[in-house]
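#struct-queue
[09:14] JT: dropping the first one here, sequence first, then the structure tokens:
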Amino acid sequence: MASRRKPPGKGRSSKGRPSKEERPSKARPEKDRPNKGGSNKHGSIKDGSSKDRPNKDGSSKDGSNKDGSNKGRPGIAPAAGGLGNIRNSIDAVDARIHALLNERARFAQLVGISKSASGKAVDFYRPEREADVLRMALKRNQGPLRDEEIVRLFREIMSACLAQQEPLKVAFLGPEGTFTQAAVLKHFGSSVRALPLPAIDEVFHEVEGGIADFGVIPIENSSEGTVNHTLDMFLSSGLKICGEVELRINHHLMGKMSGTEAVMRVCAHPQALAQCRGWLDEHLPDAERVAVSSNAEGARRARDERGTASIASRAAAEIYGLNLLANEIEDRQDNTTRFLVVGRKLFSASGVDRTTLLVSAADTDDSGALFRLLEPLAEHRVNMTRIESRPSRKRKWDYVFFIDIEGHVSDPSVAKALAALEERASLFKVLGSYPRAVL
């Protein structure tokens, strides 16, 4: 029979040791107690440093992420306390930015040397590469700067780096102050040599003759449709489309007078007059509407003629010294114009591209003629985003078709579709395969 043990005394364990409540603590003071990883509570490791101790989110103390990137993390933490300290931090950031800009410029020089010894900027310009850089910048952007500002800043950086060899020469539908000039600056940056010309056909001729490296011309407006003169130029020109620009259009009424009551006539490009038709009907129903070759030409007349106002951009008001009489008078808030960049050769794919075709059939008035031309696109699942018809100028009631599709001519599905389309067409011409507008 098992003997009964005497219960342990109060405050004693069954083996005679003090209970947990009475046992003296051997723990280190709270501030020196190590974490499981060997670091103490204020983040330093056994040797007293904190250089290898990651933050809770997995980033390192210098702000980089697990993968070594700095996405969403500033390189220098804002200084605490006082405006002077904050300004010192800004100066430090500026110094780093400046050093990195010069480093980028040196790399751009190396790219130029590796490509050609001719030193001409047109030999180094790669629209597909620039589009890729801008898309990566947008993907990285987490604010507070808006996407539009990020794109503009990176565009200017690339423009300045490219201009180290020689500025690009870009012809555009002028004079200065037009929306086409704004499209040049948006696409190429301000380190180019912009060449204003009075007509669309002259822009084509300057690029064809090698006087300009590229040209920028309007192609369509979201409210008023296609600029037919631009389409017609492609019937006889050998130039290629190298890029596109989408520009939000804000129209302003301007003149030398101080108010709209003194306006007797309004001069503007026909497209601008059409885009502001509703506002003009409501606010200036009795004013004469005069169509001119460009909005900038209208601004020039408003400067020189009594009683004349014009519709143009803010830049035109500054250039010609005019007063803004009414702001943003376009009828639609999403009023946008698309511009084309034309050059002398095709470029490689960027990954997000558009291709423009010029096609026709032997008899465009035959039943199903257009269907037979477009059928290969559907068979190879190539998306058509736009189609326009224009007179062929060969015989009456005969037409050609301008078609925009998604993808690049080098994409396998696009290549197969175009090969089948070419077999069916009496006229087949790839006008361009180029990066789609980034913003």
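[09:21] JT: and here's the second one, same format:
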Amino acid sequence: MRLISLSIPYLYLLHVLIISVRVGATLLFAPIWGYPGLPQYFRVLLVFAVAAAISVVIPFNAAALSNPELVFPVELLIGLLLTMGIRIAFAGLHMGGQLVSYHLGFSAVQAIDPQTQNRSTLMSNYFTMFGYALVLATNQHHLIFRALADSYTAFPVGASVASSQWFGALIEASKQIFIIGWKIALPVFVASFVIEMTIGFISRMQPQINTMVVTAPLKIFVGIVILGASMTFVPRVIASMMDTMVLRKYAWPSRRANAQKKQHPDEDNAQGIRDSLRTPKN
């Protein structure tokens, strides 16, 4: 008769705890799972469930478990870097909404942003929620889990991350705030600029016209029409924002290899031709 052991696997629990540090830093600061409206117990349960699932395939590192006080900060840094670029991309959406609100005259109309719990313009909240819906509709949130799983291949538990691997990529990702923001607000900015120039010429030719009464509703009407027409191009603007993950080229080796093959397709074709010439014919 086989006896059932009731001993507590302390080493396994410590292994799951270390993995949950990176998983928690990635998911709790990610745009979807970091939403404050989700219950706290649900987010904690999700982190430990994902950590327990990943711990099955992650090799046990006894050397790292012997010094957990040194491993925890590194795991936290890796998790934050994996999701920081995505947060930066959504900050670009927020900035684009701020610029659109300013040019439409909606900057004074503010509400509470459910993500940051701060006061923000209506257009900023709209573009942020639109980004969330677009990420979920296109299954881009799966990329976070994929990068998280691949990160343990590039950075095993107990490995260190050099500043050269993330500092330059972090600065590069920070530029996306202005790039994404201005790409979204540019059509409305051009339309409002043309309207103001036109109203300026009309006021010089017809001084009796009250331009202050005409300009405000005209800018709102034309701006909303232009914004609605340009919304078809917004998915193209933010389609690659998930690629702004700071450690994406290290935590995603398979995608990096495919990108290199796409950059050098002639070499693969030439290699295939050489192989076919070397194969003897029957």
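[09:30] RK: nice, looked through the second one.
[09:31] RK: Residues 199 and 215 are 7 Å apart (CA to CA).
[09:31] JT: good to know. The first strand starts at residue 110 and ends at 112.
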